[in-house]
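Standup, Tuesday
Yesterday: got the pipeline producing structure tokens again.
Today: sanity-check two examples.
Blockers: none.

Example 1:
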Amino acid sequence: MNSPAPRPSPTLAPDLQLGEPMTDTMHAEFVALLDALACASDETWIGAFDAWTAHTKQHFAQEEAWMEEMNFGPRHCHGSQHRHVLNVAGEVRRQVADEGRFDTGRQLVSELREWFAWHVKSMDALMVEALRARGIAQIDHVDQIV
């Protein structure tokens, strides 16, 4: 009986790593699913988009739960960015599914890459700093990973 080869964990570009394992893993999965979406054919695009959306909803919900737990000051601004991305994504999905607007869908993927890099380096970096300060983060520094 042959078992399938284990799937490698997604990797995250060093400039997007925040040094908190759960956050970095969620971010690597976000990028991997966005990459899969960028490579999807028209026939597989909706399925790839739905996989990215499902992950992203869970990812954002986890961050928002952490921010609520620690009463993080900028949580409302951070969360509003999450809601805006999901609202835009929902509208773009509708346009692709109902009107065949794959050009709009592919434009969203391109713009999400830029937004995500900014979001990680600003909003998520502040959140992880606060998690560390409150002892919620799994580790304190990237160089502590063995």
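Example 2:
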Amino acid sequence: MQLTHLAERTRPARGPKAGHGAHRQTGRGSSPWAEEAARLGWTDLDLFGVDGDRPYTRIDGLGLVPALDGCKIVALSAEGATLETPGGVRQSYRRKADRPGRVLVWKVGS
């Protein structure tokens, strides 16, 4: 699993050339949330999934990391996460059920 790459900063790239934006966003270090996500049963697709055909158009298919969009994770549960925007507003993210057509963000266009 790529859980050690879970990060909580940096806006993902948007648009047709954004294929690897969220992968860059995941960073290279360990996140304080990586162990918690693994313990709670989050999968790679839960964290890094996007719609394979329309990665940033189908927001209902975004995994947690591509959905961050500049937010940071402040709480994580088996059902979802609480995110905080740069302005301090808290938002809820609901964990998505697996569905056909979702791929890992770094596999878009492969």
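Quick observation on example 2: The chain has four helices and five strands. Residues 3-107 form one domain.
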